[in-house]
Design goal:
The protein is α/β, with parallel strands linked by helices and 434 residues long. The protein is 35% helix and 14% strand. The relative contact order is 0.15.
Length: 434
Amino acid sequence: MKERSPKETELLRKASEFFPGGTLGNTSFADGQQFLVKEGLGSHIWDISGNRYIDWLMGSGPMILGHAHPIVTQAVIESVGHGSTFFTTNENAVLLAEELIKAVPCAEKVRFTTSGTDACFQAMRAARAYTGKEKILKFEGGFHGTSDYAVMSVTPSAAHEYPQATASTGGVPKAIEDLMLISQYNDLPTTQALIESHHEELAAVIVEPLQRVIAPMPGFLQGLRDITRRYNIPLIFDEIVTGFRLSYGGAQEYYGVTPDLCSVGKIMGGGYPIAAVMGRSDIMSVYNQTEGATSDYVNQMGTLNGNPIACAAGLATLELLKAPGTYDKLRNTGRSIKESLISICEENNIPVQSSGDDTIFDIFFTDAPVQNYRDGLRANSYMMSAFNTELLKEGILKSWPQKYYPSLAHTDDDIEQTIQAFKKIIPTLASLQN
């Protein structure tokens, strides 16, 4: 266990007193492993007691350049000097929108929000307004934020039959279940049958092109594009995670499949609170009160939408990502960790499946391929929990329960230290096998 200073111990006590569960609601560590971050630089973070961690969580993805990148920091400092927010259109917002439209294949118009949850929610609302229909099809295990619609069937049991939706959190009206249809990711026949049966009711299909850490099977995304286009159903790519990570143009550029709408966030804001819904001009026209019927108009307001400071951070981040060799470096870093992890598991006769992309990935402790949410349920979750707990003891932080987010700041030394931690921990997991 890491040693905790009196100051950190006291602040942890206050966190337990002030926050439900003692956290911000994003991460939950094993008893005795809770810590408070003081600062981050590059690929590392430090807790208040001075303990250093190699960070593979990277703020849950946005810090692709590393923490406190000097160019991004300077852009923010310069922007702050000109004012914090204006609630009206500003220069940085226009410039960031221009860059997003240049980069992302489906983007013809942009509307900024302040979170991935809101961007995904807005994409679904825009599709409803545009089509005049109400139901949305999403995929079991897919995460599109925490709106009432998005939390349907995120973590269900395997007992539910498609397309029945079930809320994965409290406080959601039961009526929402009737507005969401659920299919299985990477199962094109089931999805096609559902769309054919319900196409007259469907306002949109929303999907993470790479769902959590599960990559699309060959032909799945294109098949989804073909069937939605056949019935004039808007296809929404949730690219909050994959945008500017799989490639500069996101998953739609990387996989060669262009949706009608998409949501982006995380990386595009350089670590600051901003996201966006983007897409075809005709669908995005629902945000323009001077176009279309009044009943179709979507009133989307937000105090910090297009915040100039966040836009400045985003512009600086995207400019750096355009440098030659950026994505080769990112993939090489991820590949080094992923391949080593698989190899060490196999050397120790630990059943394992690799999952995801070199730019965002993890493993499942199982001997069966993982192609969808239900496949993942069969993996050994106790082993994963123990593995993550031991990694943290070794000063290696990753997303719980799953996801490694490689960054451009991770060094060869970071990679080697992480691999050495794998070699130390994985042999101890054998006793946890089913």
